[in-house]
Amino acid sequence: IIPMAELNTKEKRLQPFSVFNQLRQTTPVRYDKSRSCWDVFRYEDIHRILKDPTTFSSIRGLAVKDRETILTMDPPRHTQLRGLVNKAFTPKVISDLATRISTITDELLDAVEIKKTMDIVSDLAVPLPVIIIAELLGVPPEDRNLFKKWSDILVKGPDQNTEEEFTQVIAEKEQATHELNDYFVQIVEQRRNEPKEDLISLLLQAEVEGEKLSDKEILGFSILLLAAGNETTTNLITNAVRRVTEDRTLQQQLRGIPELIPGFIEEVLRFYPPIQAIGRVATKDVEIGDFKIKKGQQVISWVASANRDEAKFAEPDSFIVDRKPNAHLSFGFGIHFCLGAPLARLEGQIVIERLMKRFVDIQFVPNSEMMYIQSPFVFGVKQFTVRM
Ligand code: HEM
Fold this sequence. Notes:
The protein has 388 residues and is α+β, with helices and mostly antiparallel strands.
């Protein structure tokens, strides 16, 4: 979880794409001694890695080791558990949320409209996904500040790379996981006694080939949804707004032709991916290009680079609102393809639709400090003030 040396300035963290373009051309596959991992930058190589879980395992040493979730599992266990959670996380469950997402978005915008200015991050992009996931899981909305605190800690990485800071981040993560566990133990117990229409109740009932999820797995999955679903969607929303403020013509286009919005969100995902990189571990000696990866070595796939690969995308550094096809890798690829992609897309689309409908012009307020998020895998900003 250490950042790449090439991305060590604020400017580069806010606009890393020229760095990726250069690395893809000069060292498409390379070993970084300081981080003890391989970095891979080309679309074709990354596609191959994500497609081959037998050679490139997802069982990797994440900070909190005792947490087993589908994200860090391989087949056959991954296949079984993913089958179970797919049953609860159906397209219908997600599309039924559309009205609720619009209502919450409007409520959040009602609260700031009078000020004519807002911080997209704290006023909209943070609360919306947290409220939706809390409601989906069936936990009380009053607890959403706790949720926010926990999900922030779970995705945080060290900024300065000192041993001391690293130890502190790990300790914080362990503490948050304990608190979350205690919290969900109660909720799961309540739902077992008194099932409702929520995801935890569905997960308690879901069965594949006579097998159910254990309590521990339900806890792990609930925590994974918080960790994987909140900050990512926050950044999709913020990055989408960042994009419309960078291009006023685009903004007017989206206002005039709302049918462009789903394609716009896909292009935002490609252009400004909320997750920049995906980690795997080689299960055997394997070659990528001319390089020999050894069994047990870490391989980091730079999705943010693959999405700008000229071998795959025409004019990769241009933002093309109706780009077709748009096979970006921002939700991953293959068996671990993001479970929450339909939900994240829906939230992104509804937010932009509501913003375009309600405000005639949205402008970035440049004097506000723009700071990147302190995590080597996340692409997003901490604050984004706009006038509307
Ligand atoms: C997996 C990105 C939103 C739940 C993934 C992966 C990526 C990703 C890249 C694959 C990781 C890998 O292969 O190791 C994103 C982005 C999002 C987003 C960019 C927002 C724009 C969500 C949401 C949820 C969610 C809203 C849930 C509510 C998951 C889960 C997995 C996953 C459970 C693991 C799937 C598996 O291992 O089979 N996500 N995600 N994500 N995501 Fe998302």
